[in-house]
Design goal:
The protein is mostly helical. It has a single domain, classed as Invertase/pectin methylesterase inhibitor family protein (Butyryl-CoA Dehydrogenase, subunit A, domain 3), CATH 1.20.140. The chain contains seven helices and no strands. The chain is globular, with a radius of gyration of 22 Å.
């Protein structure tokens, strides 16, 4: 009898500790549900859920603005990685070959994309003023403009690869840039869901 009382007391103590450790905002399951529901509004919902579910931000995003900021961080990371990859291809010993001009152009486009995405992330993460104010709307418009510009840079890179780049190089670069364009498109869709009152 004493053993079962001790076991019950330990179980209740553990349950109490576990309950207080969960955040008031619903914890990881609620965040995951929020991400999944929000990603339905994007062009690539599966990519959106996957990229944001693995996002290392702490705490997990629980508002449209936090989610858009997380999506922009993912986009910046992916764009940087793709830019580095393209840089290796057109650098010494790379396989840019006869298509080195278009590959270098792509590299410039990706550098621009990284800059635009970084600007958008900083703007959205900064003090945008009181929600609903003209200042907030202006900052939000800047974020949308930079996201759109980044997406244009990425698409320009893809378009340029169709001229004078061998099939293997084009395919290798295209895979990286398409991935970046998808997360950037998703980030823009999530930014567009940030209402001026958020």
């Amino acid at each position: 009898m004493a053993r079962s009382s001790l076991a019950t007391a330990l179980l209740l103590a553990f349950a109490a500790v576990a309950a207080t450790a969960l955040p008031a905002n619903g914890g990881p399951a609620a965040a995951s549900d929020f991400i999944r529901k929000s990603c339905r509004a994007t062009q690539y919902p599966a990519v959106c859920v996957q990229s944001l579910a693995s996002y290392g931000g702490t705490p997990p995003p629980h508002s449209p603005r936090e989610l858009a900021r997380a999506a922009l961080s993912v986009s910046v990371d992916k764009a940087r990685s793709a830019s580095t990859y393209v840089g290796r291809i057109c650098g010494p010993g790379g396989r840019g070959g006869a298509g080195a001009g278009p590959v270098r152009d792509c590299l410039e486009n990706m550098a621009d994309s990284v800059g635009h995405l970084r600007d958008a992330a900083q703007e959205l993460g900064g003090n945008m003023g009181r929600a609903g104010s003209p200042g907030f709307k202006w900052h939000l418009s800047n974020v949308q403009t930079w996201c759109s510009a980044a997406l244009t840079d990425e698409n320009t890179c893809l378009d340029g690869l169709s001229r004078g780049v061998d099939a293997a190089t084009r395919s290798a670069i295209r895979g990286k840039i398409v991935e970046v364009a998808q997360v950037t498109s998703n980030a823009l869709a999530l930014v567009n869901r940030v209402a001026p009152s958020n």
